[in-house]
Design a protein that fits this description.
The structure is a homodimer. Chain A is an alpha+beta fold. Chain A folds into 2 domains: about 1-70, no CATH class; about 75-230, Nucleoside Triphosphate Pyrophosphohydrolase, CATH 3.90.79.10. In chain A, about 35% of the residues lie in helices and about 20% in strands. Chain A contains 7 helices and 6 strands; from the N terminus they run αβαβββααββααα. Chain A has helices at about 1-25, 40-45, 105-115, 120-125, 180-190, 195-205, 220-225, and strands at about 35-40, 60-65, 75-85, 90-95, 130-135, 145-155. In chain A, the strands form 2 sheets. In chain A, strands 4-3-6-5 form a 4-stranded mixed sheet. In chain A, helix 5 (about 180-190) crosses helix 6. The radius of gyration of chain A is 19 Å and the shape is globular.
Chain lengths: ~240, ~240
Amino acid sequence: MTQNNELVDARNVVFERFTDMLLECNVISKRHTDMYPITDIGTKLFSGEEEKGDGEKETILATVNRMAAPFLGITSVGVHLLCYVRGNGDDDSSDDGDKTNIGLFQNVIKEAGEEAGIDPEVVTKNALSTGCLSQMTCKPNDGTCMKQSLYYIWDMEVDRKTFIPHPADGEVVQFELCTAKQLEYEVRYGNRLRPAMILVITDFLIRHGIITPDNESDYSKIIAAIHRERLVLEYVPP
Amino acid sequence: MTQNNELVDARNVVFERFTDMLLECNVISKRHTDMYPITDIGTKLFSGEEEKGDGEKETILATVNRMAAPFLGITSVGVHLLCYVRGNGDDDSSDDGDKTNIGLFQNVIKEAGEEAGIDPEVVTKNALSTGCLSQMTCKPNDGTCMKQSLYYIWDMEVDRKTFIPHPADGEVVQFELCTAKQLEYEVRYGNRLRPAMILVITDFLIRHGIITPDNESDYSKIIAAIHRERLVLEYVPP
C-alpha cells in the first residue's frame, strides 16, 4: 500500500513537470484550479476485460492538472442535469466534471446544489438518468489537443412556478428558460453554446421528439455519432 | 422512366431466382408474405454523400422477399412504439417493418392502428420520437445470416384506465402490462423476448432511468453498442 502511494506520488511529479512544460511552451495558458484523477476507465468502459464488482472503488493511478489531461489522451468524464418544464426544453442547470470518486448520481446531486442551489432531495426524487454521450473535440484553429469526453445525462422535469435555480457558487452566471425551438435554433445555427452543450442539447431534442427522423435527414447518422466509441488509451497494469 | 422500370423488373427477376435458390438449398424454409423494397438507405445513412431534399422520395431500386433480404446484406428498417403508464414500463404495443415509402411516423400511426387498434389521432397527438437503434443478429446455431437492422423508436405515455390496446389484425396475439422490474429481469435473464425486443426494451429502461450508470457497470459500453454503425453495403449508381 505504501509502495503504491509512492508510485502514485512519483507519477504525479512527472505530470506536474509535464504541465509546466505545456505552460512554458504556451500550449496551455494557465493551470486549472481542479486536479483530475486518472483511473482505469478506459479498460472499464470499452475493452472486453472483466469489471470490478460494484462495491469496489476505482483505483486512482495518478492526478493531473485538468488543463493538461487532454494532451495525455485522458478521457474526461462529466455529468449533466437537464431541467425542463413540460412543453419547454430548458438548458441544463448544472454540469461538472466527475471530480471525486463518489457515484455519478451523487455527483449530480452535489453539483446541482453547488452550482444551481437545487435542493438535494428534489434531485434525488425527480432526476432520471437517460444515457451517456461521447464527444471528441479539438482546438478549432489548428486541430490540436484532441479531447475525448464522456457525458452522463440526467433529465429532471420541474414545475415552472416553484423551481427557481440560482447561481450558488458563482460558476454559473445566470439561468434562462428556453423554448425547444430556441434550443433547436441554437444547435443548428447559433453560436451561444459550447461544443459539450451542443452535444447534450441535441440529444435532449432527439429524445424529446423535437428533432425526428422525418424532419432531419441526418437523424440516424447524428445518433450514431454522439454515441460512438472513441480512441481510448488503455492502461496496462505492470 | 420506362427504361428505369425495366431495370427494376430485371433486378426483381434475379432476386426471385435468388430466393428460389435459398429455398432449394434449405437456407430459408419459406417465402415471407412481405416483399422488401431496396432503397439507397446505405449511402443516405452512413456515408458522407449528399442527401436528397426532404420532399424527394427515395428511389426503389428493386424489391426482394423479406426472408431473402438479410442474405444480401440489406439493412432492415423497422419502427417501434413503446406505450407506458407512469411508474410502469410496458412492452411495445406495435412494431413493424418500414414496408412502404411513407414517412416513418406515418408508418407508426398506421401499424399502431392495424396491430393494436390504437386510434390514429391518439398516436399523432401523444407519440414522441426518441431515437434510433442498430442491431446485428445472426442464426444462433451456426452464425450465418448476419442481419443488420435499424429501429426507429417512439414513446407514448398512456392512461392505464382508458388505454386498451387489442390485437386488431391478428399479428399480435395479446397485450400485457409489465412493470419496469419485470422488463429488466427479462432483458437480463429471461427468454421471452426476441433479440429486437431485448434491444428496444434495454434502451427504454436506460432512457427512463431504470438501468443507470450506478447500477450497471457496462452502462456506457451497452449504450455505445446499441447505437453503433454497422457494415452497410453501399449502392453505387451506374
